[in-house]
Predict the structure of Enoyl-CoA hydratase-related protein.
Amino acid sequence: MASDLVHVDDNGILTLTMSTANAGTALDHELVLESRDALRAVTRGALDADVVVLRGDGKNFCAGGNVAQFAAADDRADYLRGLADDLHSTLAYLYESQLPVVAAVKGWAAGAGMSLVLHADIAIGGTSTKLRPAYPGIGLSPDGGMSWQLPRVVGAARARHIIMTDQILDAERALELGILSEIVADDAVEQKAYEAAATLAAGPRGSYRAIRRLVHEGATRSLTDHFAAEGASISVLSATAEGIEGVDAFLAKRAPDYRGVR
């Protein structure tokens, strides 16, 4: 990985920085590509990680796409399709990696930034955090999976309302809707996000990956098919080193050491 903005630390936390102070904390295309490379390496077994943290390096999590660059493109349609395809392939690798995802949502998360938040399992916001679809404001439609993910979080009718009216959701409203998981002081957002990530990194890797997979795949399965998937998953995990350690530790009334049995 070429940048310290995309890296794995000693705790197994893969940091993916999606924006910097440049261009008003717009989504950084090069960082999207670098993040894709890192996630692809995880899926291929070339990079070991336990959890992903999504963050921004400026005052905002991500203020959306770089509209000035949209306007400057010789062929806007081709340029926007390329940007969307790159973002979508990055997110596809995020799901393929099966890693739990924590988002440190400070400041604004607008447009593609809001889309990214919706892919987090745990999204930590600050008291000043605000989210906004932003697409209708520039006459465009969502990308980054917003129109797929938001209805699954808030319901289809509410999702249409939020996106079409370009609502600004403050932190409390986003928490109420289930988009944010927790609100902390603005200056504690990243610290809390990394604390949550460290807890996940020390936990049962197989369990978390299975939970993420089951929750997402459950949206398109019948209940009976999902019963079968749950039964198969819990059975497989019970025979893994982590599953055995978890049960044995419970019976011994001690804290499980999941890292020690990997």
The longest helix spans residues 76-97.
